[in-house]
From TrEMBL, chain B:
It comes from the Bacteria. The lineage of its organism: Bacteria, Bacillati, Actinomycetota, Actinomycetes, Micrococcales. This is Membrane-flanked domain protein. It comes from Cellulomonas gilvus (strain ATCC 13127 / NRRL B-14078) (Cellvibrio gilvus). Keywords: Membrane, Transmembrane, Transmembrane helix. InterPro entries: YdbS-like_PH (IPR005182). Signal peptide: none annotated. Coiled coil: none annotated. The keyword Transmembrane applies. The chain crosses the membrane at residues 31-52, 58-75. Residues 83-157 form the YdbS-like PH domain.
């Protein structure tokens, strides 16, 4: 007799041995977030009143604080471990199936012919472990991606090639039974082994690519310094320092501190996401690689770019630099999307033309 | 002009479809969620009124109790009004009595399907199916489906989406 959960979980389109789990190190990488959240919340609460915080931590107070962080850490890791047990995915010829959720169960089914982009994202911590987050972007606002976090980096690459090939209409060789090339232990019953086995689909090699442009670090730094944000920051600094000197008061300088930190953060974000920017063309689609701490390798299949935008701020007119951005239905709006939709962070006129050619080869530029 | 009442409801009631109502267990699930939130509030208000001997303190309790009762009655009617229909090319979801809405999503515009079930929903053996289009706003969601029906609908929507691909 099947329970109701099993009824919903059952899926005839997916053979039982096609289900895979994420890499077992995943909970260790995700559990940290709870600690980070608590520390961030506490520092935000006490940012205005450092003295109150130091009073709290005096005497036995710090023991309590450390205990709280430890408790949150244990809960976070335990939850991540349980969530990892519940999370699995399967790739069939038509769709990607994703199951997750410990308390709130969720199943997502995204058709491969609806694939808008495939990103392999490696945050710093994941990179140290050689893991990667494979994100399948499907159209439909924020939260529409199927995020497979974390897989071993070579596996993520292989899976990306497979997904792109399947999305392009290629089919797995029919003579290769799934059991032969996928030696993972089937999920139901017993302790399953985790992670995708390497080279599970030998038929799909990574498509060859041709590099179109790279962005030199020096130009990225100079362009960031010439951005409107830096100019605004300098003007504001000069004005406030002059005001403080005239009024003989240092108060306004401290009031400026949060704004200045915000500016610096935004600039750092730009340099961080644009560092080592490389764009390449391949039959799979446009390949973009960038990022300093968090590395991101994007692939946007042909015909998935809905719009291109070229912008030039006032201070970029002299060197004739352009920022090229694309609209892809899969990337929603927000911070993460702003990072994902850059086609060229700072392009010369020729490079901007090359970037346009990547998207629209028949534009005649 | 002759058929006044039916004319009024015609936009929400296409003639060529047969509506499938959702499970009545959804009403019980929603009432449970409501009780979890409102019973403690009612208990605190009643306690307050008993402890402090002021007759007007029964007023907040009475107001909240009345709203709770009204909400409980409303939930049953709302769940009764929630229905969906599968046509050849599109899925229809109808809801509401006082404020009516009808969502029509062509299968070809579907981007992905979600099936979700929270703890209360699972206790009452129901699940909800969401059909996402490329627009973040347009989402046809059907709550309160029995598990087997949710699984069937998920697979059916996915296969119909394949047969009638359009756009994006």
């Amino acid at each position: 007799m099947k329970t109701d959960d099993q009824v919903v979980e059952a899926d005839e389109a997916v053979p039982a041995d096609a289900w895979r789990r994420m890499h077992p190190v995943t909970p260790a990488l995700k559990g940290w977030k709870a600690i980070v959240a608590v520390v961030a919340f506490a520092s935000y609460q006490f940012a205005d009143d450092v003295r109150a915080a130091s009073d709290l931590l005096a005497g036995r107070g710090w023991l309590f604080a450390v205990g709280l962080v430890l408790l949150v850490g244990v809960v976070g890791f335990a939850y991540s471990g349980l969530a990892w047990r519940m999370t699995r995915y399967a790739v069939t010829d038509e769709a990607v199936h994703y199951r997750s959720g410990l308390v709130f169960r969720q199943q997502r089914q995204a058709r491969l012919d609806r694939l808008q982009a495939v990103d392999v994202v490696q945050p710093l911590l994941a990179r140290l472990f050689g893991l990667a987050d494979l994100r399948l972007e499907v159209a439909g606002g924020s939260g529409s991606a199927v995020s497979l976090a974390y897989l071993r980096e070579p596996d993520a690459q292989a899976l990306r090639s497979e997904l792109l090939a399947l999305a392009a209409g290629l089919r797995r060789p029919t003579t290769n039974p799934s059991a032969a090339d996928a030696p993972a232990v089937p999920l139901p019953g017993g302790e399953p082994t985790a992670a995708v086995p390497t080279g599970r689909v030998p038929g799909f090699e990574e498509a060859p690519e041709r590099e179109v442009y790279t962005v030199p670090m020096s130009r990225l730094l100079v362009s960031t310094l010439r951005s409107a944000g830096v100019v605004g920051l300098v003007v504001m600094l000069v004005a406030v320092v002059a005001g403080a000197l005239i009024a003989q008061e240092a108060g306004p300088l401290f009031a400026l501190l949060p704004a200045a930190l915000g500016f610096v953060g935004a600039l750092w974000g730009r340099v961080n996401s644009g560092a080592g920017f490389r764009a390449a063309w391949s039959p799979d689609g446009i390949r973009l690689r960038h990022g300093l701490t968090e590395q991101r390798a994007q692939t946007v299949p042909p015909g998935r770019v809905q719009a291109v935008r070229l912008t030039q701020s006032l201070w970029w007119r002299g060197p004739d630099w352009w920022r090229v951005q694309i609209n892809v239905a899969g990337y929603g709006t927000g911070d993460d999307a702003a990072r994902a939709t850059v086609l060229h962070p700072v392009a010369t006129r020729q490079e901007a033309a090359a970037a346009l050619w990547l998207v629209l080869p028949d534009l005649g530029v | 002009m002759t058929d006044g009442p039916t004319r009024a409801s015609a936009p929400f009631d296409p003639t060529d479809v047969t509506w499938t109502p959702v499970s009545p267990r959804l009403a019980r699930a929603r009432l449970t969620v409501m009780a979890v939130w409102l019973v403690p509030v009612l208990a605190v208000l009643a306690l307050l009124a008993v402890v402090i001997p002021q007759p007007w303190l029964w007023l907040p309790f009475g107001i909240v109790a009345a709203f709770t009762l009204w909400g409980a009655l409303l939930v049953r009617r709302q769940v009764g009004a929630l229905a969906y229909a599968e046509r050849a090319d599109d899925l229809l979801v109808r809801r509401g009595i006082l404020f009516r809405s009808l969502v029509v999503v062509p299968y070809g515009r579907m981007q992905y399907v979600d099936v979700t079930a929270g703890p209360v929903a699972r206790a009452f053996k129901i699940a909800s199916v969401q059909l996402h289009t490329a627009s973040p706003q347009t989402t046809a969601s059907i709550e309160g489906l029995p598990p087997a029906e949710a699984a069937r609908l998920r697979d059916r929507l996915a296969s119909r989406g394949e047969a009638r691909l359009a756009g994006l």
